[in-house]
Amino acid sequence: MIKSMTGFGRGESRDSVRHFVVEIKSVNHRYNDIIIKMPKHLNYIEDRIRKHIKNKISRGRVEVYINLEYMDDSTAKVQVDLPLAKSYKEAIEMLNEKLDIRDKITIDLIAKFPDVIKIEKQEEDEDEVWNCLKNGLEEAINKLIEMRIREGQQLAKDIKMRAENIMDIVKAIEIRSPEVVLEYKNKLKNRIEELLGDNYELDESRLANEVAFFADKSNIDEEIVRLYSHINQLISALDSDVPVGRRLDFLIQEMNREANTIGSKASDIIIKNKVVELKSEIEKIREQIQNIE
Fold this sequence. Notes:
- The strands form two sheets. A four-stranded mixed β-sheet has the order 1-2-4-3.
- Helix 4 packs antiparallel against helix 5 and helix 4 runs antiparallel to helix 8 (about 270-290).
- The chain folds into three domains: about 5-75 and about 125-150, Ribosomal Protein S5, domain 2; about 75-120, no CATH class; about 150-290.
- The chain contains eight helices and six strands, in the order βββαββααβααααα.
- Helix 1 (about 45-55) links the parallel strand 3 (about 30-35) and strand 4 (about 60-70).
- The protein has helices spanning about 45-55, 80-100, 105-110, 125-195, 205-215, 220-235, 245-265, 270-290; strands at about 5-15, 20-25, 30-35, 60-70, 75-80, 115-120.
- The longest helix is centred in the middle third of the chain and has 71 residues, at about 125-195.
- Helices cover about 60% and strands about 15% of the residues.
- By secondary structure, the protein is α+β, with helices and mostly antiparallel strands.
- GO terms for molecular function: hydrolase activity; RNA endonuclease activity.
- Keywords: Endonuclease, Hydrolase, Nuclease.
- Pfam families: YicC-like_C, YicC-like_N.
- It comes from Caloranaerobacter azorensis H53214.
């Protein structure tokens, strides 16, 4: 079952101290790019978060937003830097004296200066924080994956339909290919007779050699066989339980290469038109698989 790389999930978890809200969204990306935005004082669990996500999601740009709200202020402590406050007060008094200003120095004024009053979070137990966060993270990831699966099912349905269209086009090219050689032989024979008249005796062996050369030059049997193989592999991969985005991308590249080769070998307008249809369907699939994990 294939998955899209686009999705969104939200989860919550709490204990007696903290309340986490986790939101995850993912979009297309060639690799597994994880971006985590959370309170700075939780940076020590970033590796755990990243590893947990990578175990569940193998491809895509994943953005994680973690919001933390404490249930009470027991983890916060107000710190006052008295020496720094005293230095600020002395500096203001010196300015008053030097500039002959008699403004009052208030607590409000001193408290506004940087780092005089700081709120520090008390050190928390890493395992305790992680155990609380993990539940919300897991919920968000599961909802994200559910959305990716739903969209992946729609993508697989569309790709299978287009793969069947490609199969029909390749079959039409396969049927047409031997007819082209026969038509070439008849046209060449008629042209020779038209130019040289009835008195000229046609050399059947030379004609056969010319037709054989044309047939060999325009032969597309190998390309058709490989296209059938690539199509069957593509359809089979859509039912796989493992990420197949990169494999599908490779198959589409190979299919496009075979289509180009057929187009370059073909001198028949019907086959050339079929190649245009073929490449159009391949390109539509290529666009779709850019969003597959």
